[in-house]
Each structure stands twice: as C-alpha cells, then as structure tokens.
C-alpha cells in the first residue's frame, strides 16, 4: 500500500514517485486550484500539495479532500518536490520537501472524534482520554514514550544477554504468600474454594532457579499488587528482575551500574559515571530525612542531640536559609499542613516551625522541644543557632522522633522536599534538568518496628529472605533489632529505581527468621516450605535486584505519571476505562467457581 513512510522522506527523494498512507490533518483549501493537507503516520508527517494544473481529475479529488474529517485515513501517490526556500521552517528534513499528489484514496473515513489528540491545549480529563486510549496514544508525547520504552527494553535485553544472563519466564499463576502487599486472587475449578494468586514479584521462583543452578537469571517480569493507587503505582507493573549466584552485593551493583550506563547512553546520549555514590540508611534518614534521598541540593538536616536527654528520642533541625523572608504567611501554610499530617502518621512526635530574627526565634510555645530545652537556660538559644548556622531571616524546623521506629521518611525529610520544590518555583533554587544523581542506599535494618515500643513485634524491613550482614549474624540470635541486612536500594534524584539484597541461603537461618523473629504461624511457615527445602538441597549463596521498568521509562521521558509510559494503564482508581474492567461476573460464572457475592450493607 505504500513505498515509503512520511518520516523517511527527505531532500534526497526529490523527483521520486512515492506512495504514502496516513492520517489526514489540517486540510487547507487556499483556492479553487490549490489544496494543502498534512499527512501523518507513525514515523512523521509530510505536507501534501494538490494543484489543479498538475493533478488528474482535480475537481473530484479536491472534493474528496474537502470532505475529509480529522484523522481520516488516506492513501496517496505523487512526486516528491522541493519546497520554496521561503516556506521551509524548522530543522526536520521533511520540511524541505512536500508531495505533489496525483491520486488520493480514502482508506477509512473517521467519524467525529471525542477529542482532538493533537491539540494539547484542549485535551479533556485523563479519564476521558483513558476511555479513548486508542486516540490518546496518537499524541506525539505518548508515541515517543512507548517507543522509548521499547528501545530501553531492547537495550536491557541486549546488555543482559551480553553478560551471560538467561531469560527465564516464571509462572503468573502462583499462590498466596504473606510477603508484602495485598494480592489478586484467581479462583479455579480444580478444588472448591481454591485460588491462585498473581505474583507480586518472581522472588521465590528466582531463588529456586539459583538452587537449580542457572547462576545468572533475568526476566522482564509482569507483577501485580492489589493496593491503593497513586501517580507512581499501578495494579499491574513491569520490573527488570535479576538474580545471580556466588556473588557479593558489590558484584550485583557493578552489573546494575553497567546496565544504567548503557541505557542512559543509548536512550539519552548521556554518559553516566560509575561507581555510584554509596550511603548508609542511617546517613540517608538523618541527613536527608528519607531512605530515597534527592542529593541534587543541600538543605541537609542537622542532628541536635543536645536538645533531648531521652535516649529513645532523636532531635534534629532543618534550616531553610532566608526562608523566613522568602515565604509569605500563605506560602508557609503547606508546611504547617505537612507537619500535622506527618505527625499523625507517626513520623515524628512533635515538629515546630520558627522564624529567626535579630531578637531570637518566633513560635517557641510551651509544647515545643525548643521551649522545653530553653527552660533550663533561655540564654542558650544563640549557642544553638550558631551550632546549626542559622541566621536572621532563616526558617528553622525543630523535630523530635522516636529512635525505636524506622521510618522511610521523616517529617523533616518531607519538609526538606517541599521547601526545595517551592524554592524552585520561586527561582531561588536551581536544579539542572539533566543532572542525574545515582546512589546506593545500604545497611538497612534487617527488621523494623512500626510502633514506638521496645517489645513490639519485629517485621521484615523489605522481605523475609534478605540475609543479615555477616558481622551481625550473632545478633540474629541475641538482639535481632540491631541486625543490619545485606539490602541495597538504587536511588535517582529522590526516586527509588529498584531494590535488592543478598538472600538467606542457609535453611536453618531462614527457619529461625520465620519462627523466632517474625513469629510466623505454622501455617504461614508451611507456605514457604518449598523454598526452605530448596535451600537445603545445596543452594548456592545468591542475591539479586529488581528495577521498576515503568518508573525507569518515566524518568527517561520526564513523564509525571506512570500512566504516560504504559500503553494501556489503569485509571487512578484501578479501572480499565477502555475495556470496562473489572466487570461483574455472571451468576453462572460465579456458580461454576462456587463463589457467592456478599453485598456490603449500607453505612448508617
């Protein structure tokens, strides 16, 4: 049907006869003898010229072009000609030429569209676009995103293959295991009440593959989680899943750094330097208030142990230089709102905000940590301000949080991120768009308490298969709360790209973690029996990592939402608005699976 695509035509084709197919846009009838049409396909666009003196059956063909609705599909044939120099605009080679058409054929006359995907200023709501995703995907931004995703995926596959990894598919129909978020269940007719579960990750399968002796495994894996959604979450997502035998964490990190370097070079033409910076979890949370810190700017948190005598309380301060002068009362409101929300979530006990002036600090009420500390000696304030390098005009946040809780984010960490965002908007903080600060966060606590109580039950910080740090192995049996794990997260500009760990390969250590530390029930322990058995059958030391492919592509394309880099994503509330899923099952289908639906009574 075509000899060329619109995007490949250039000045070197001048004088050649070609046949093109594509969507017709912007039909312009300039006179009774001259018509212009923009023709677009997946590879670019070209201007069509229909001229009375050089087109057979011009009147009939002109009428056909006039009646074209936007995005109707046409096939054309003609001769490539050079455009007048005065008409050439832009850098694209296609703008140097146009097609002098001698024949037009309508392939599919488009009905009126719900919206024009090519006019960005008039795009409807995201729900409307998701309900018409086939149209939304015609947008150049989404076309680019999906093509970048394809190229990035191919780059990853080539890199992994060149480094001796074996691409192995693992089952999508798995079983429910208590290792993370809520799962999607899939009923089956095999046994009444029996269900498969869609895997949250191939974690157990890839460890079994190491026991099987494959040594180096990878997979572009589909994963599923039935959890609350937001801009960076989808119920089904894709990850680059990797596992290796006989390795240290440094070996795995070296492979990942090489992979990132290759992807950035191929996709963005940017050479990334390695090795990446490495920081501990303790440094990340104390200095930046996050286990995935953005290190492109300062505003570092300062620990102030002198403010408290409680060994279970961490006192810390965040200084925003000139913040008291830069932010109006209205602009400070988001800070106050964030403090209230963060405290309610248990990320801090109490956090206060103070403007620093020549006469001291504002906001020192009796409830604040600063006020309690100054009760001993009010003259100590200049000493404190000097120790944290606070000056008149600065904005200071003082916070206290429990040392027995392991937060992924602290209140001051969230305030730091908010302050940077607002300072950027005001032009007071410059962060280059092409700066990529990759870093590894390491030495996470192996176990976590989510409540402020020394006797509270410990839970796995990441998952129960992470190996303890070698030097901390004795503590696993005496004081597990102090054990660090061999876990590592790859972070870029405040976004977690992926995480991994060296795994437990000793079945006795794994059973001890299940039974004596996590206190799993015998039933739950039994659900991991296959893995413990495999570990006992000569499983090599091993470890791995998983990268979020959706998030990786979102960063590569500078997309605000993961939905912009997935061809057919779910909406913000987890629904497929194009296919109208999930859909109610028929009574016959439910009966076949032995399922009865219990309606939730209305709330009173």
Question: Would you kindly provide a brief summary of this structure?
Answer:
The protein has 604 residues and is an alpha+beta fold. The protein contains 18 helices and 22 strands.
Keywords:
eight-stranded mixed sheet, single chain, 18 helices, 604 residues, globular, five-stranded mixed β-barrel, alpha+beta
Distance between the termini: 64 Å
Rough outline: globular
Outline the low-pLDDT stretches.
Answer: none
Number of strands: 22
**Helix segment count?**
18
Mean pLDDT: 92
Radius of gyration: 30 Å
Largest sheet: 8 strands, mixed
Oligomer: single chain
Strand content: 15-25%
Portion of residues in helices?
A: 25-40%
Strand sequence of the main sheet, in spatial order? 6-9-10-22-21-20-17-11
State the secondary-structure class: alpha+beta
Explain what this protein looks like in three dimensions:
- This protein is an alpha+beta fold and 604 residues long.
- The protein has 18 helices and 22 strands.
- It has an eight-stranded mixed sheet with strand order 6-9-10-22-21-20-17-11, sandwiched between helices. The chain has a five-stranded mixed barrel with strand order 1-2-3-5-4. A five-stranded antiparallel sheet has the order 12-13-16-14-15.
- The longest helix is centred in the first third of the chain and has 23 residues, at 140-162.
- The protein is globular.
- The mean pLDDT is 92.
């Amino acid at each position: 049907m075509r000899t060329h695509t619109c995007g490949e035509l250039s000045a070197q084709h001048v004088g050649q006869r070609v046949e093109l197919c594509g969507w017709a846009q912007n039909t312009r009838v300039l006179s009774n003898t001259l018509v212009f049409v923009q023709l677009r396909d997946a590879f670019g666009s070209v201007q069509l010229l229909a001229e009375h003196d050089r087109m057979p059956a011009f009147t009939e063909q002109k009428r056909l072009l006039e009646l074209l609705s936007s995005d109707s599909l046409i096939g054309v044939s003609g001769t490539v000609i050079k455009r007048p120099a005065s008409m050439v605009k832009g850098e694209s080679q296609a703008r140097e030429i146009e097609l002098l058409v001698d024949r037009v054929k309508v392939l599919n006359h488009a009905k009126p569209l719900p919206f024009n995907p090519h006019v960005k200023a008039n795009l409807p709501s995201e729900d409307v676009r998701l309900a018409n995703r086939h149209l939304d995907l015609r947008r150049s931004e989404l076309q680019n995103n999906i093509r970048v995703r394809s190229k990035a995926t191919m780059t990853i596959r080539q890199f992994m293959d060149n480094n001796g990894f074996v691409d192995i598919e693992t089952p999508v129909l798995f079983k429910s295991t208590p290792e993370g978020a809520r799962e999607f269940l899939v009923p089956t007719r095999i046994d009444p009440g029996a269900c498969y579960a869609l895997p949250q990750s191939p974690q157990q399968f890839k460890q079994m593959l190491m026991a099987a002796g494959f040594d180096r495994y990878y997979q572009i894996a589909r994963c599923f989680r039935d959890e609350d959604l937001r801009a960076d979450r989808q119920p089904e997502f894709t990850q680059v899943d990797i596992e290796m035998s006989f390795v240290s964490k440094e070996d795995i990190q070296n492979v990942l750094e090489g992979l990132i370097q290759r992807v950035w070079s191929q996709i963005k033409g940017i050479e990334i330097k390695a090795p990446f910076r490495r920081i501990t979890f303790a440094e990340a949370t104390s200095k930046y208030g996050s286990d995935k810190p953005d290190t492109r700017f300062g505003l570092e948190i300062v620990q102030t142990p002198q403010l408290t005598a409680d060994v279970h309380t961490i006192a810390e301060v965040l200084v925003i230089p000139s913040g008291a002068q830069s932010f109006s009362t209205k602009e400070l409101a988001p800070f106050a709102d964030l403090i209230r929300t963060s405290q309610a979530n248990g990320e801090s006990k109490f956090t206060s905000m103070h403007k620093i002036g020549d006469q001291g600090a504002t906001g020192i009420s009796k409830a604040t940590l600063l006020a309690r500390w100054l009760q001993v000696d009010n003259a100590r304030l200049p000493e404190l301000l000097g120790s944290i390098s606070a000056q008149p005009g600065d904005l200071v946040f003082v916070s206290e949080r429990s040392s027995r809780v392991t937060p992924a984010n602290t209140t001051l960490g969230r305030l730091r991120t908010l302050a940077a965002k607002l300072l950027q908007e005001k032009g007071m903080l410059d962060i280059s768009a092409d700066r990529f600060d990759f870093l590894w966060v390491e030495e996470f606590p192996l176990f976590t308490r989510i409540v402020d109580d020394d006797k509270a039950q410990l839970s796995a910080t990441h998952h129960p298969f992470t190996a303890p740090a070698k030097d901390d192995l004795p503590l696993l049996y005496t004081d597990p709360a102090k054990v660090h794990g061999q876990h590592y997260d790859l972070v870029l500009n405040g976004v977690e790209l992926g995480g991994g760990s060296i795994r437990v390969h000793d079945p006795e250590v794994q059973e001890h973690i299940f039974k004596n530390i996590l206190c799993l029930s015998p039933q739950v322990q039994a659900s991991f029996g296959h893995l413990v058995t495999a570990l006992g059958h000569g499983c090599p030391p091993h470890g791995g990592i998983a990268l979020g492919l959706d998030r990786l592509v979102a960063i590569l394309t500078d997309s605000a939402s993961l939905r912009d880099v997935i061809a057919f994503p779910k909406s913000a509330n987890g629904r497929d608005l194009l296919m109208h899923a999930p859909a109610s099952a028929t009574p016959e289908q439910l009966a076949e699976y032995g399922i009865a639906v219990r309606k939730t009574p209305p709330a009173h």
